[in-house]
Amino acid sequence: MSKIVVIVGGVAGGANVAAQLRRDDQESEIILFDKGEHIAFSTCGMPYYIGGVVDKREHLLVNADQFAEKYNVNVQTNTEVTFIDRGNKQITYRNKTGKQRKSYDKLVLSPGASAIKPDLKGTDDERVFTLHSIPDMDAIHNFIQTKKPRTCAIIGAGFVGLEMVENLKALGIDCTVVDRSEQVMKLVDQDMASIIEDHLKAKDVQLILNDQLDSFSNNSKTLHLNSGKILQADMTILAAGIRPNTKLARDSELEIGSTGAIKVNEYMQSSDPDIYALGDAVQTNNPLTGSPRHVALAGPAHRQAFVVAAHLNSDEIEYAGTLGSAIFKVFDMTVGSTGLNKAVLDHLKIGYIEITHETLSHAGYYPGAENICIKILFDEKTGRLYGAQVIGEEGVDKRLAVLATAMKAGLTVRGLPELELGYAPPYSSPKDPVNVIGYKAEKALE
């Protein structure tokens, strides 16, 4: 039976719900509202456009008109949904013509997240930026092209901060990274983060840890840190993380989870069963522990979109939770992580054993072998895998993929030596590093 499905927000979540739903449902009316100009774009690709690795801006974008025609979706860009009347199942939206209302049978919320911007004087200066949207990307790109900055301060050493370091350095811009934590990239443990830090220093990146931005002066060219240190920078990128966009959900009195994101069930339904939510704005559970997590990654958002579209078609496919498998590149190094790290396990008071294995990415006698470091965290009694981290210049992605798959399949560390992984000298060794760390973990359990 045909219905009216209203989707608020595009990108990996909302746009994929619309596309998947239309593949299976040719009758329903589907309307997608997005307050921006673009219904879908590659957030992860933006640093590489700024750095010139991706040469054409349009390669990151999905054309709204082509999307609307292909999937028979009513796409309304530059249109903001401002209110949900749950009792009457109507939304209020605003565009250049003013305020209007639209009824719905089912509502899907994909409002995404926003870059955290500290409430400091100077953050609105033309030389201070965040990077979470296409307008953000365009502003940084245009500033670099027109102002020719020579130095940049990056506040935050997470995904965006470290990816921007590489791309700015490629443009000849000297970078200083400031982070309030004791380490870069809190996704990994401190011993693994130290490998990243050494690599950054080798690339002439200045690191300032255990410190944070206090204020700007001199037209935001001067940065004052809490420690009293003073930095001079032609531009500043605020990369201190993101915050889920939950205002619409809160105003509608939908339940918000303990992480500050929208709480959903296994079918991605909010506390109102006619309203779904997904993507960067939702809280899901970790499949290993059942503990709530807010994970903003494209892969989980795509899977959640499939679950939502299926449920809208009365097909009950459950979302199994988010491991949080992530990978990124910083200069010549690749860093991957999946599951839980030590900080999270300690917070949850879960007992674990940690094992680290350093080796070569493939057979040492074959040219091009690079160092690779693998770390796993597992239950001290059962050997169940809780988390894995991999760092190196080659072969990181495939080891991370194997370990993430092993975790999803419920393997213990005893299963790692039994994995039959492809071997030839250019690719691995007869005993892959994943096999070897499994042997080491078995011995630790004994």
From TrEMBL:
Domain (FAD/NAD(P)-binding): residue spans on this chain: 5-298
GO molecular function, one term: oxidoreductase activity
Cofactor: FAD
InterPro entries per record: FAD-bd_OxRdtase, FAD/NAD-bd_sf, FAD/NAD-binding_dom, FAD/NAD-linked_Rdtase_dimer_sf, Pyr_nucl-diS_OxRdtase_dimer
Taxonomic superkingdom: Bacteria
Entry keywords, A to Z: FAD, Flavoprotein, Oxidoreductase, Redox-active center
Residue ranges of domain Pyridine nucleotide-disulphide oxidoreductase dimerisation in the record: 327-428
Stated family: Belongs to the class-III pyridine nucleotide-disulfide oxidoreductase family.
Matching PANTHER family: NAD(P)H SULFUR OXIDOREDUCTASE (COA-DEPENDENT), PYRIDINE NUCLEOTIDE-DISULFIDE OXIDOREDUCTASE DOMAIN-CONTAINING
Name under which the protein is recorded: NADPH-dependent 2,4-dienoyl-CoA reductase, sulfur reductase
Upper classification of the organism: Bacteria, Bacillati, Bacillota, Bacilli, Bacillales
